[in-house]
Amino acid sequence: MQRIIASTLREVSFYGAVAFFVVLTAFPFYWMLITSLKSNPDLYNVTNIPFWFNEAPTLEHFRYLFEDTLFARWLLNSLVIGVCVVAITLVTALPAGYSLARMTGRSGEALGIGVFLTYLVPPTLLFLPLSRIVASLGLQNSMWSLVLVYPTFTIPFCTWLLMGFFKSFPREIEEAAIVDGCSLFGAFIKMVIPLSLPAILTTVIFTFTLTLQEFVYALTFISSSAQKPVTLGVATDLVRGDIFFWGEIMAGALIASIPVAIAYNFFLDRFISGITGGAVK
């Protein structure tokens, strides 16, 4: 009897904890959804209960986003910036992480830590010198300035992440490929990269997420609405003076966050294996 009670309590505690974290995680999406579908009288009436609809839901906020603002352009800008930064990061971080992982002695680990420490430097200290570089290249008020600047924090982090994964990668696979006639670079291209897809996918998701959520550099380098990414456009063009367009802000946040959430859930298994791949060493 005591075992049954103890087992029941463990199950109740486990599922209770899971339910708590599910509600905690899902609540922001629920709040964005219900706020974006509320009419303005329902949204701004302080006597209404905010957790459900007191009046009929409406798509007016979504219509306003796509017809009266440059929201579609902001989404496209964020996509272009993200794809370009992901490509630059992969081309740089893959060989860098592999080289650091294969360096003998403590020099590789020390260099890896040094690379990662550059990621920890806050943007509030770097945007001044970077703004000088952007001005010198004539990229002021252009989304291409972000393509230039964002790799300064995505490459260090992804290099450190890939270095941990490559350290756990068996050297015997590369040696076998070299014995079969591949060069070291050929073994890296034909053997290491195909077997490192979980780590590469993790790098892609992290890089795209970092570029999507960045705000300080975008606010510093871009003022034209047509050049803004979605995070900057929603936060600036939908706040006018002391007026917050909460319905449109929540609708924009919901649309921008759903693709990232789907990507994380769709590739969850590979994502976890990519993060923990370097922990086996």
From TrEMBL:
SUPFAM superfamilies: MetI-like (SSF161098). Keywords: Cell membrane, Membrane, Transmembrane, Transmembrane helix, Transport. It is found in: Cell membrane. The chain crosses the membrane at residues 12-33, 74-98, 110-130, 142-163, 243-267. Residues 75-267 form the ABC transmembrane type-1 domain. It is a multi-pass membrane protein. Gene3D superfamilies: MetI-like. The keyword Isomerase does not apply. Belongs to the binding-protein-dependent transport system permease family. This is Carbohydrate ABC transporter permease. It comes from Bradyrhizobium jicamae.
